[in-house]
Amino acid sequence: MSSLPHSPAADRNKQPILDALTGILGDEGAALEIASGTGQHAAWFAAALGRWTWQPTDADARMLPAMASRVEEAALPNLRPPLLLDVMAPRWPSEGFAFAAATEEEKQFDAIFCANMLHISPWATCAALMQGAARHLRAGGVLVTYGPYIEDGVPTAPSNIAFDEDLRARNPEWGIRWLEDVAVEARRAGLVLRERHAMPANNLLLVFRS
Questions:
Q1: pLDDT band at residue 96, thresholds of 50, 70 and 90?
Q2: Taking the model in full, what pTM does it have?
Q3: Which regions of the chain does DSSP assign to beta strands (E)?
Q4: Contact 191, 143 (CB under 8 A)
């Protein structure tokens, strides 16, 4: 059994998310994952999407060694070593990749994926995510976010209400975000919410395109 950090939630939702991604992504491309955490999603998606290169990242440098071990354990040619990436930084990734030597094409991605970040980080990260995605998506590219949201006119599940209260008690800058507020930040960056997919455990998968 692997001794690497393990997220039960990531293990539960990796297949439903993959099922949704297969209907959203094209046959091949390059994907950038924001806030990869344990790297479980990255390894699962790269294994299933063999014609997609998958670049995991995280803002917490402490997560990178374990994620690098998971990448090495997976031994997939299309799964890249993890990079440090803070969405608030003026340049993505923050460290670990010779961006200065990269071509403009290498700085672009066909898809950017971000799961469960917006509700456990300050609200300013939403605008930063949207602006960074707009900078780094190729023409026709897609930003996909996953997690719990609150929606106008849609009853909020009791579990999400309790989760939101717990988040705000832990950090007043955290909390489940209103979908409409997220969509506004996306539009300011030139991205539009095109698809909304209901997911298990009262989560949503959102698809933004230019």
A1: low
A2: 0.94
A3: 29-34, 52-58, 83-84, 109-115, 137-147, 149-150, 177-178, 192-199, 203-209
A4: yes
